[in-house]
Fold these 3 entries.
Entry 1:
Amino acid sequence: MSNPESGGRYPRPSINQRLVLSIQSGAFEGSYVTKVLETHDGNLKVYAPSFRGTILPIPPGEMLSLHFSLDNAHYEYECQILERFPGPIPTILVSGPDASLRRVQRRSFFRLGANLPVSIEPVAPLPGTPPPGPASEGVTVNVSGGGLLLESPELYPEAAMLDLVINLPDGEGPARLRTEVVRDAGRATPGARGTWFLAVEFLQVEPDVQERITRYIYLLQRAVREERADPEDER
């Protein structure tokens, strides 16, 4: 059943309701909590997805999945970014629920936003050759069982191998894994001391480290579901 603000035959979220926007592919793949600010002709104006105060550079026309709850039911549909609104509080306009809307029993997010400190150790491509850049300290933007998006103070080239030491919050000490840069996702912060977004894939991960990452992602999934289900918690 539609709520009073539906304005049509499809259920839709209400003003001030929290949502989850999921980017299905690319460097910023992951799920981001946001909130409905206004409605315009059936479309939804929401906070722009961001990480640590940096707005993700997702252009108009990009397709996303939008997830929301209503009357103890969970829904998702494919939406499109219609317009971006810069300003002190950047927002985006996304298309409202349509024929792609479906009711779901549960949803697993395989990659979620995560802010974890990372030590980055570039690996020389051949013995006796220099590594593809200096060691540095960065943070994760999102993480999955097979890769992550990294915010790095160094711009490492595509195909560069990086040994990452990630401090997972599980009390089991640092987790080390070898990765490969698969994409330069753009500048994260401007200026001479700016940082970059780098998408990396896991190349070598010990089974116990893989299990720890999978367990951590599960805890993130559960936290997002609980946050989405709390109607009193507003941004």
Note: The two ends are 26 Å apart (CA to CA).
Entry 2:
Amino acid sequence: MFRFPRRGDGRAELTAAELAMLLEGIELRDVKRRKRYRRGAENTAA
């Protein structure tokens, strides 16, 4: 059974990827979220 992510204001917000998984039948609570690689600020001072 699908359960929407809970928020304090009674609304649910999904990303496009989460919506796609939901429509494909993947249970969001079983998905492991991993940190994404982010490039640090480049030193542009000359």
Note: The chain has a mean pLDDT of 74.
Entry 3:
Amino acid sequence: MPIAGYEIITFTFFLSTFYFLLLLRNSINMERVVVGLSGGVDSSVAAYILKRQGYDLIALFMVNWHERVGAVTSRCTWEDDALIAEMVAKKLDIPFHIVD
């Protein structure tokens, strides 16, 4: 049984993805591109598409927070995110750097 609104969500995702790819294709006139790689789906797919289109990529992971004593803790640390991003970069054979 389909979930209400699923078709609309899928179509919207398709349009936004199509627009993103069109924008990438028409706006990047360089052969070497620095891609921000968080390890999430969006940046990983963007890196994959750019790599597949023949761009020479460099992946950067940016540390956006540091755990603090007394702060709200999370099970997902920046080190975990960086490890996932590094695995994606390794799989795509892209140089990977962490910046803080």
Note: The helical segments are 6-27, 41-52, 78-92.
